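Q: What structure does this chain adopt?
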Amino acid sequence: MKLPAFGGRLRGTAVLALLPLLTLTACGSGDTGGTAAVGAQASPAPTTDPVASVRTVDSVAALLPADVRRSGTLRVGSSIGFPPGAYYPNGSDKAPAGQDIDLADAVAKVLGVRLRRQDASFETILPALGSGKYDVGTGNFGVTTERLKTIDFVTYVNDGQGFAVKKGNTAIEKVTDLTQLCGLTVGTGAGTTFETTLTAQKDECAKAGKEPYDVKVYSENAATLTALQQGRIDVIMSTINGLRYQASQPASQTTFLGEYHRLDVGFAFKKGSPLTKAFRAAVDELIKDGTYARILRKWGTSASAIETSRINPPEHA
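A:
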């Protein structure tokens, strides 16, 4: 899954102020990257560090393949774009922060390995797993039936799909059926579950005797937000947690319309990866010792907590 891409010139200052939150590299919603505006100030990351006290658990680390235990490293393709998932609070030349960053770092500590994190655009990570470029991918990847054909997942939160509009737009109050979008222009990220959902169900409007909705795909979150504020799109489809966080930032001038479809979110691996059992056990260890709850509380995503990690669960109906 990808996390969100989010008017006229009068609102340019507000948009620029949000750029560090929205445009940074490789957003989990499917961004291919972007650069924070010069002089824009990023929202500071929470200062608590629930990962600091995590220690290696030998029984869990023993589940790793022998070659990984010997090397002590894992290559991670990481899509980094906006809070609360993953973003650069202090610029792209500094360390990233966010829920996905903390969870990956905590899992690595349980497993006793180091992460070699490489920023990558959302839509390139899953294919790169199959080619062996990365051992694991992070980027708020939703577990879908289609992805399960080629990718293994180890779940760590339950997020999903939602919608947002420009603040003050009362024409749409909630989206429970995609026919409510008929005649509108919807903005979303490239290579995401949102794009797939919108494309697959586009003919529902014609079946209902309505004008089809138009889908605009953006490679950067800032471009999506600008399009919304300038009236070039009517609504954004992206992650629940990302859109909810976005709406809490006054400069974004967006209103979250609520949840549309829940999806499990997980670490991504090539099909048949020997790493999945170790990662599942590590996530469960973090849930058991309370670190998991502290990480989600830090990032305001406790509503997305899971009780236990799973490997390749079926997509939610």
